Amino acid sequence: MSSIAIPGAVFSSLVFHLKNAPSDSEGFLYGGMRTHHVENITDTQSSGTREEKKLYVESFVCFPERFKFYDHYGRPHTERIKALLGDDMKRVIGWFSCRRNSTNRPSMREKVVHRRLTSCLTGVPCEDFLFGLVTEMVVEGSMVHSTDYSFHNWIGTSLQPVKVGIVNLQVTATVPYQLFPLTPTPSSLPHYSSTLQQHRTNFVNSEGHMQQPMLSEQLYKAILGRLKVSYATISRRRMSF
């Protein structure tokens, strides 16, 4: 079985979709298998390399409802899957399910769906085909939201949890931030500059300031102002009594 890695940005986006979907959701995981040659130093060998395969989850497609690509008996709709994924079907390395108020264990239906999907999706070997499960629990009577996740492979006769590495920035004390350059970045890709210029107004205003931090600050000031007004009103009512 290969090791598995998923970027933190992709994983956080997956959780974001769960929290904003109107109901339980499902989808497919995109990625690919890569081979690395790593150093293998032992007590009897001072140098050497070994081949290591790693399965990378690069992106995903999410459907905000269940039973989008299989029926209630767990049988995949092959033609519907082809229509939904198109040319990306060959990039599929697994699928996922997002559930609310549920335990983080694969259900019997999910086990059946996973086993049958491996026969119609051949992006990776059957033993490496992934199943991701994200669940959210809300503690009754409080504002605590608990989110759990797990990834599974079919090992032997059932789905078994596997260790997945979340690829992040690492320790910032030893790994410097990689800032974007202030000057335009040259690129040989066609339409690179025109595409950046087209979407620039979505992120930067006419004065060159990032819009999202400014909007967040405006929201903070508006909330703070409303709270001050409410506090002053309550204080005046208490004083009148």
TrEMBL record:
The record, for Pfam families, names: MPN_2A_DUB_like (PF21125)
A Gene Ontology cellular-component term: nucleus
MF terms (GO), sorted A to Z:
polyubiquitin modification-dependent protein binding
Q: Which InterPro entries match?
A: FAM175 (IPR023238)
Hey, what's the signal peptide range on this chain? none
Query: Looking at the record's lineage, which domain of life comes first?
Result: Eukaryota
PANTHER family to which the protein is assigned, alphabetical:
ABRAXAS FAMILY MEMBER (PTHR31728), OS07G0540200 PROTEIN (PTHR31728:SF5)
What is the protein name for this chain? BRISC complex subunit Abraxas 2
Q: Which organism is it from?
A: Geodia barretti (Barrett's horny sponge)
